[in-house]
Amino acid sequence: MELLCRICGEILQSEDDTGVCECESCGSRQTYPKKYDSEKLGIFNKARRLRQKTDFEGAEKLLSHLCAEADDEPEGFWELAMCRCGIVYEDNGSAVKVPVCRRVSLTPLTEDVNFLTAVAYATDEQKAVYCREAAAIDVLRREYAERVGNGERYDVFICGGSSEKGRNIAAQIYDQLCAEGFIVFFAPKSIKEVSGRAGELYISAAVNSADTLLVVCTESDDFAELHMKRQWSRCASAVRKDGDKLLITCISGVSEGDIPDELSDYPVMDMEKLGFVAEVIRLIRRKESGHSVSARNAPEKLIRRMNIFLADEDFEAAEEYCGIILDASPECWQAHWTRFLAYNGCRNSGDLLLEEVVESFASDYIERFGFDFAEDDIFVAQLSQLLGESPRKAIEYSEGDEKLNLETMYDRFINAVRDAVFAREQENIEAEEKQELAAIRRRHDEEEERKTAAEIKKQTIRNRFLTYDAVIFTVLIILFVKFKFVWAAVLIIIMIFVTILVLEGLNQKDR
Fold first, then answer.
1. For helices 376-387 and 400-483, what crossing angle results, to 10°?
2. Long-range pairs of 323-329 with CB within 8 A, sequence gap ≥ 24
3. Cα separation, 24 vs 10, whole angstroms
């Protein structure tokens, strides 16, 4: 098996055992492998061709197996280092091909483990060539890293399908994730005006920076399409290198058996299932909440998302992000203040002065402490105890104008709650006075009703007595006048005395 030149692709002629030769076609001085047999040399040439075609992931896969089988051959490790930097050789307008970076790497090539391994096993002649080329490649790497690698950092990278359906679905996912506050890279929307080599650089940088990588596929043939394959291969390679990244393959109308082996070990989600996007968002948030945020000393991005959730009344998500931020930055006053607002269902600080919010706090205060507060200091201390430590810490950790604004808002809120409690106390006093007055009136009415009932009863007794008395008198008078009964006269006299006594007794009860 013949060895091919890494620059021009022509056949190399090696005449000594130094591991370095000169290509008769392009005149470049380069290294070559000394310990590969015919089979391994065929694999090595294939990997070199894949790298030149920018299929770096495919080349890395072959070279990794090759280096595992021949771990003392430096040329395999050198090719791996070149794949990591995305080095290909292209015409620069002259007859000479020059190295070009097609991937962005923020780590110098001279610090790469593959480069260091190659140098460790190289001959002195090979080592000189490796170091010279590595220095030149690092110049290119820095140039492209400054161009795109230090740009915007992304939360999510979306590798869209090659079909129109796949691109449309990927675009919808992009829009929904952006609406949730994530910073998302999707080439058709993120770099509309950039294509070709420059576009590949931006894509490579986005894959490196994103914590979550989504591969969207609606047809089994999408995985084999060149542009699509480059992207999902980059994603798989990035996850293998950085185990903290999350890779999700999102499929629709595709069997899991059609998913490439490189992606099959990672989560697969069916986009046709109800709540697919919500589940993706949940996984991303869980990933981010479990991620060490301490590297971001100023979590402005998380604060921005936290405020978006708060304004959208997604208070549960806002509180979740408060926890994430405070884990990374315990003295972040914005997170403490937002946690206080979210817990109490407020979209912003102004909501604290809404009547229903103030009344709610007044009710909670009265339920816990009642109306018994003689001084403002006692009221403020008791209310602060009720509100918890979040507003206190927010004011404590804030500075300058923010501190002044918070203190002003907090004082206005305290005064509003105090006024509401005082108003409720007055309402309570008035209600008690009305109840007492109503009780007095009720007792008076009951007494009057009792007296009236008693008077009616006595009047009834008097009328009945007089009626019976008149009948008896009439009978006795008839007996005395008509029949001359003397005893009837005596009874008449007795009846007169009895009637006088009874009527006098009823009159005394009235008095």
1. 110
2. 323/289, 324/288, 324/289, 324/293, 324/299, 325/293, 325/299, 327/293, 327/294, 328/292, 328/293, 328/294, 328/296, 328/297, 328/299, 328/302, 329/297, 329/298, 329/299
3. 9
Lowest mean pLDDT among 236-245, 298-307, 336-345, 448-457: 298-307
Exposed e or buried b per residue across 116-151, where buried means at least 16 C-beta atoms within 10 angstroms of its C-beta = ebbbebbeebbbebbeebbeebbebbeebbeebbee
Q: Are 204 and 234 in contact (CB under 8 A)?
A: yes
Number of H helices, E strands in the chain: 19, 9
Mean pLDDT of 214-230: 85
The tokens describing 105, both together, are 């790497």
> CB neighbours of 118 closer than 8 A, spacing ≥ 6?
74, 75, 77, 78, 81, 126, 130
The count of C-alpha atoms lying within 13 angstroms of the C-alpha of 356, restricted to the half-sphere facing its C-beta, is: 4
Instruction: For residues 289 and 259, give the distance between their C-alpha atoms in angstroms, rounded to a whole number.
Output: 29
Q: Are 332 and 303 in contact (CB under 8 A)?
A: yes
The b-or-e profile of 213-246 (16+ CB within 10 A means b, else e) is bbbbbbbeebbebeebbbbbbbbbbbbbeeeebb
Coil, strand or helix: which one is 212?
strand
Longest dimension (CA), the chain: 181
How many whole angstroms separate alpha carbon 53 and alpha carbon 63? Answer: 15
Least Cα distance to 77 among 62, 58, 64 occurs for: 64
**Coil, helix or strand for 96?**
coil
Q: Which residues pair with 214 in a beta bridge?
A: 158, 248
What is the rounded distance in angstroms from the CA atom of residue 97 to the CA atom of residue 10? 13
Structure tokens at 374: 């003689």
Distances (CA, A) of 335 to 305, 321, 322, 325, 411: 11, 8, 5, 7, 20
Q: For the chain, what is the mean pLDDT?
A: 82
pLDDT digit string, tens, across residues 141-189 = 776 665 554 456 788 999 886 778 888 888 999 988 888 888 888 888 8
Give the three-class secondary structure for 262.
helix
